[in-house]
Amino acid sequence: MKRAIALCGGGTKGAYELGAWKALRELGISYQIVTGTSIGAINGALMAAGDFEQACELWDTIEMENVMADGLNLTTTIEGMYNQREAIRPFLKKYVKNKGADISPFIEFIDRTVDEERVRASGRDYGLVTVQVTPIKPLELTLNEIPQGKLKDFIMASASVFPVFPMQKIDGVTYLDGCYYDNLPVDLALKMGAEEVIAVDLHTSPSHPNYVNKPYVTYITPSRPLGTILNFDRKVLDDNVRLGYYPTDPDNISLLLRGIQFPKGVTTNLLDPCCGCGKALRQIAQGNNCYAYGVELDESRAEEAQTRLHRVGFGSYFYSRISGEAFHLLFLNPPYLSVLNENGGRSRHEKRFLMESLYHLAYGGLLVYVIPCYRLTPDICRVLCDNFDDLTVWRFTAREFKRFKQIAVLGTRKRRDAGPPDTLWLERYAVTPEAIPCLTELPEDRYALPVQPLEVHTFMGERFNQKELEQQLRRSGSFARMMARSELDSGAKRPLLPLSIGQIGLVGGSGMINGLIACDSPHVIKGRIVKTVCVESEDRLTADGRHIGVIEKEVISNKMIFSVLTPKGFRALL
């Protein structure tokens, strides 16, 4: 199935698309087609080339000076504009002269950032949208339709958001930003043969609401407004990038570990339904007599996780088969991805992972749930309070909390109560994160894991895992016994009765009597079969016995020859 990524235009809001790309990489989602408009065309060229490092560098280093000479940072605050009051006059003078902002730095920036040869050699299809001015008509161009050496020019054309930027001229033809026709080119992706499209919008309301209910379109939107199209504030850009990706810091894992009491003499089962490379779960399991199970969608990360964890399921967790109530601890740090489902509502992965994975945890088992603090929404708080007892919330240490707003929700699984739970105390943490205690305050051995041994009867990933099968077979006593060589196979083989001439011929003809024969008179023997042709004749007689002729026919037969080399010389036995 061909999958396409369609990227929206929106200036500096395009930092969100890097965050979405990080999330897609974490989920192991591959793609064969990329389409984009304006900033989406720039990010799309990097995605088509598979140049994730270059994309990270772009959004880590981009400044207003990379885009406009004597430009303005279009913030949404009066204070921000007031602080730039001295820059407004020179900006307007250049704006009038150039019929748009002076974007010569942006042209140089694109030239350094986009590698046309790498895009063309990637094996992925790429398309962009622009608008031709004379005569005016929209253009949806694929990589094959863009002349060699002109890719960067047409990317600039797709990003020429007039009147802020001047129009782009290519070989005497004038072009405008593709946003004036289609700011999110889902249609182009479908025309290019996509059977499934992941559309990354930069607006909280869908640019193409008609695609929201289509089963072949996954519609991703930001959970909050991303700001203006030319806001180069570093904090805003970093926040937009991080909207979809939250790694687990090992130092904070160590703090979490301090609060967990592992039972002595009992092997505990741990599960991470989105284990990535397995580093976090390995850190929890190491030295604590644990058996670590993980599931990972991306094959390369799953293979790496196999070097750290005991069992790894390949493929989507949601299509895996895993025993229920079989784990002492459930570690859950799901990738955040806000997706518009087929009913037009949002479906968040952190909620889906929580709801679908909690039944694997034994009653009394410990949940470690890592999410951004503002994701303590009423629906998630209801799931937590319905299914877990002794809930506590802990924020990550200062540096990590400032960067990602991550918290750890800890609780032991319980049977659901009949009445509705009180969730307000938990919901308040979303709006008052300063009230959340730091992980450094988590008491030692605060949560004790169940002491009873548990058995995982079923653990199967979505995809067949050959290495997993090999490991299971090596550990299987019955398989080892089945494959063991019997005494008859491993010992000297002697016939129960003397061999007949015909049996010797068959054994020799099969090549089994070859090589050195170790005995009182050692010799080397080689058996081979040769075909011989002989002519047989038969007299023809009449009914009264008179001879009327002879019938001759060729008869082909096999002859067994043993060539024997002895200390006394060579002999051939026929």
Strand and helix layout:
Elements: E1 3-7, H1 15-26, E2 33-37, H2 39-49, H3 52-61, H4 78-82, H5 85-98, H6 104-113, H7 116-121, E3 125-132, E4 137-142, H8 151-158, E5 168-170, E6 173-177, H9 186-191, E7 196-200, E8 217-220, H10 234-242, H11 250-258, E9 260-261, E10 268-272, H12 279-285, E11 290-296, H13 299-305, E12 311-314, E13 321-322, E14 327-332, E15 338-340, E16 346-348, H14 349-357, E17 361-372, H15 378-387, E18 388-395, H16 398-404, E19 406-413, H17 424-431, E20 447-448, E21 459-460, H18 466-475, H19 477-483, H20 487-490, H21 501-509, E22 514-517, E23 523-541, E24 547-566, E25 569-573
Parallel strand pairs: 1-2, 1-7, 2-3, 7-8, 9-20, 10-11, 10-14, 11-12, 14-17
Antiparallel strand pairs: 3-4, 3-6, 5-6, 8-15, 13-21, 15-16, 17-19, 18-19, 22-23, 23-24, 24-25
Helix pairs in contact: 1-10, 11-12
Account of the protein in words:
This protein is of the alpha/beta class and 574 residues long. The strands form five sheets. Strands 1, 2, 3, 4, 5, 6, 7, 8, 15 and 16 form a ten-stranded mixed sheet that branches. A hairpin with a 2-residue loop joins β24 and β25 (569-573).
